[in-house]
Amino acid sequence: MKNILGFDIGGTKCAVLLGRVSGQNVDFLGRSFFWTKDTSGADDAISVMLEEAEAILQNNGLTHKDIDAAGISCGGPLDSKRGVILSPPNLPGWDRIPIAERIESHFGAPVRIQNDANAGALAEWRFGAAQNANNAIFITFGTGCGAGLILDGRLYSGTNDMAGECGHIRLSAVGPVGYGKAGSMEGFCSGGGIAQLAGMVAREHLQSGRSTAYCESLDSIEHIDVKKVAEAARKGDAAACKTFRLAGEYLGRGLSILVDCLNPEVIVLGGIFGRCHDLLVPPMEAVLKDEALERALSVCRIVPAQLGEAIGDYAAIAASGISDA
């Protein structure tokens, strides 16, 4: 068994946790969080993280000597080799922060940092739906869309930590905007992108005199809730059904590129896919069947993420890179 500190850093909140890892199991011994906006910047936030970690250790009767490693999961861009947060768009002012060095010097244990998609891939590979796979892809669909790649039994992050940015792939000349690019995979398939897509479909319906259950007027388009769109689709609303059909088709198109290029054993889809898989899977599978190479697709499973809402905690632990206990 090994004791691992985890730090999950986000633009909304930061979580600090302690996990005891044994094989493919994690026993979480303590967890706390604070709102990122309540701190005055990176230095202050890191100080709070260290204080919270100290409190968790004390509550468990542990000292610095009992910590085997620490992991940090944070939105990119990062320099994972040097342990530096570069300039994440969701963390304004966090520019070139040597966070791994600071935490390592405090606890005297090795510290590693990964972007949230890579950390999520490590988590699902070590503890979730991609266990025992030699080649796996984890894709997170939240506000944005990004992938973590496990290739030949190890994390592949690319030359400068930019591997896996599948959300930037343009799937159509026009469409919802994601990653600053209209018609991108993030635009069509992320939670934020599907909200845009639902707005485009609603506008089309409303301007032609048709109604939609999730958007009463043109003034409401900017405030569309994807959960309501999903509920409407399950009740047969035409605009909502079209929204998820299009999202599923473009998801299938994006995944077919990954299947053909990387030949994975499993693709694990997180975020909104887990909540709306019943709506996305049929059109996704139809496009995959038409677009992907049959031999590559025949060995690839596409499954929802297994770790659910706890993936951030597991990702922070997995980011430590600690070997089996």
From TrEMBL:
Q: Which Pfam families match?
A: ROK
Question: Which CDD domains does the record match to this protein?
Answer: ASKHA_ATPase_ROK (cd23763)
| Gene3D superfamilies reported for this sequence | 3.30.420.40
The family line of this record is: Belongs to the ROK (NagC/XylR) family.
> Which PANTHER family would you find in this protein's record?
BIFUNCTIONAL UDP-N-ACETYLGLUCOSAMINE 2-EPIMERASE_N-ACETYLMANNOSAMINE KINASE (PTHR18964:SF149), ROK (REPRESSOR, ORF, KINASE) FAMILY (PTHR18964)
What protein does this entry describe? Answer: ROK family protein
Q: Which organism is it from?
A: Christensenella massiliensis
Phylogenetic placement of the source organism: Bacteria, Bacillati, Bacillota, Clostridia, Christensenellales
